[in-house]
Amino acid sequence: MKNKNIIFDLDGTLIDSKLEVLSTYKKVISEIAPSQKFDETNIDYGANLNSVLSSIYKNETEKIAQAKQLFVSSYDNSNYDDALLYSGVIDVLTYLKSKNYNLFIATNKRNTPTIKLLETKKLTRFFTGIIGNEIEPGVSINKTKMIELLKAKHLFTSGFMIGDTIGDIEAGINNNLDTIAVLYGYGTLAELANLKPNYIINSITELTTIFD
């Protein structure tokens, strides 16, 4: 296969961080209560922190700032015990590296917890490039822009984007990459299939048959 560059989303694709993220948001909400009741089941685990806090606190600018500071302090100093690798991740990444694929991560997590999480889970060694939502503190970029920056920095134009949400697949399409939607994360078959990705998989281990 000539396209030797593969970009992975992180949450919902390589790591199930739902419990870790939810517990941190619960802590934030308990200490900084929004004026309007918020249903925690509505949290979009694949979205960036700024977007989620805006959905919780609406136009309460001061509370958003306080909540972000508390979330960052709590989450960035976590041991990430409740963030779990999906079954087969290490084996698949090892296989792809053995086939000389260049592996990257584009994630809506901020850079600091992304790097810490990858180091904790011993995944850093697999990746040529890693980019998060805030390349500068307080400055958010979307996934389309993340991929654009990865392509420019690492000098490639073709490859694959692998992710579990609409945003992942749309970002790949926007950057003229082939796309692989995963169904074990936070997205649904109906919404992902509607974007017509090149592949749809139920387990990360299926990548070894695509990239043989």
Q: Could you characterize what this model shows?
A:
By secondary structure, this protein is α/β, with parallel strands linked by helices. It is 42% helix and 16% strand. Strand 4 (102-106), helix 5 and strand 5 (129-131) form a beta-alpha-beta unit. The longest helix has 16 residues, at 61-76.
From the structure above, extract its key features.
globular; alpha/beta
Low-confidence stretches: none
Helix content range: 40-55%
Query: Globular, elongated, flat, extended or rod-shaped: what is the shape?
Result: globular
Order of helices and strands: EEHHHEHEHEEEHEHEHEH
The SS-based structural class is: alpha/beta
Our measurement of the CA-to-CA distance between the termini, rounded to an integer number of angstroms, reads 8 Å
Total count of strands? 10
Kindly state the mean pLDDT as a whole number? 94
Tally of alpha and pi helices: 9
The Cα radius of gyration reads 17 Å
> Major β-sheet, in short?
6 strands, parallel
Question: Widest sheet: strand order?
Answer: 5-4-1-8-9-10
Proportion in β-strands: 15-25%
